[in-house]
From TrEMBL:
Residues 100-209 form the CBM21 domain. Residues 1-27 are annotated as: Disordered. The keyword Cytoplasm does not apply. GO terms for biological process: glycogen metabolic process; regulation of glycogen biosynthetic process. This is Protein phosphatase 1 regulatory subunit 3D. It holds the Pfam family CBM_21.
Length: 230
């Protein structure tokens, strides 16, 4: 009994479907296509040319740390070095004798601030006037010619019976601010119960200035720090 062309074609299709590697995942058509970048009108390679005479742009704070690491390797004495960093131009607000009085008067007060290469961070104390509240820090690198804002995050309750709340804030600092004399200004805004309150250091704004900060590190601690760094 002979088979027609249709039967032979169906048999080949069945064999092909059962061949190893023919199985397809759900949603797969079983057909694979390869497309090259030049077929899409794109370049196959990108070439970047560097001039040998161009000096790399390395931030000053990075160079300072490279110099410190070099001293760690070569020196046999205790190290004394100077770093350029942002330093607050005001004492810790929370340690002031009138902190509680100011908080009761303006409902929002800066507690403390910390500066590092990553930026500026700190905490804010507010009076718990209502459940819904928002705290933000407004800051400038250009003496208020332009300004930015960062929303603070609720950290937890404070004070007796939750009468106060603590918020944490942070914002990045661009590398050019880590040059001597550069300044950052900021103030804190508190919105609650349809009203807005500010802590701007009694109208002077809070400011940070980049200064030289001298550090002294005994040789033994340097070696331990270097090993930990590696």
């Amino acid at each position: 009994m002979s088979r027609g062309p249709g039967s032979a074609l169906a048999e080949r299709r069945q064999k092909g479907a059962g061949a190893p590697g023919a199985a397809c995942r759900p949603g797969c058509s079983g057909q694979h296509r390869v497309r090259f970048a030049d077929a899409l009108g794109l370049e196959l390679a990108q070439v970047k040319v560097f001039n040998a005479g161009d000096d790399p742009s390395v931030p000053l704070h990075v160079l300072s740390r490279l110099a410190i690491n070099s001293d760690l390797c070569c020196s046999s004495q205790d190290l004394e070095f100077t770093l350029q960093c942002l330093v607050p131009d005001f004492p810790p607000p929370m340690e002031a004798a009138d902190f509680t009085e100011r908080l009761g008067r303006q409902l929002v007060c800066l507690e403390r601030v910390t500066c590092s290469d990553l930026g500026v961070s700190g905490t804010v104390r507010v009076r718990n006037v209502a459940f819904e509240k928002q705290v933000a820090v407004r800051y400038t690198f250009s003496d208020w010619r332009s300004a930015h804002e960062a929303v603070a995050r609720w950290r937890g309750p404070a004070g007796a019976e939750g009468t106060e709340d603590v918020f944490a804030f942070g914002f990045p600092v661009p590398p050019f601010l880590l040059e001597l004399g550069s300044r950052v200004h900021f103030a804190l805004r508190y919105r609650v119960a349809g009203a807005e309150y500010w802590d701007n250091n009694d109208g002077r704004d809070y400011s940070l200035t980049c200064r030289d900060h001298a550090l002294h590190m005994p040789r033994g601690e340097c070696e331990e720090s270097w090993i930990h760094f590696i």
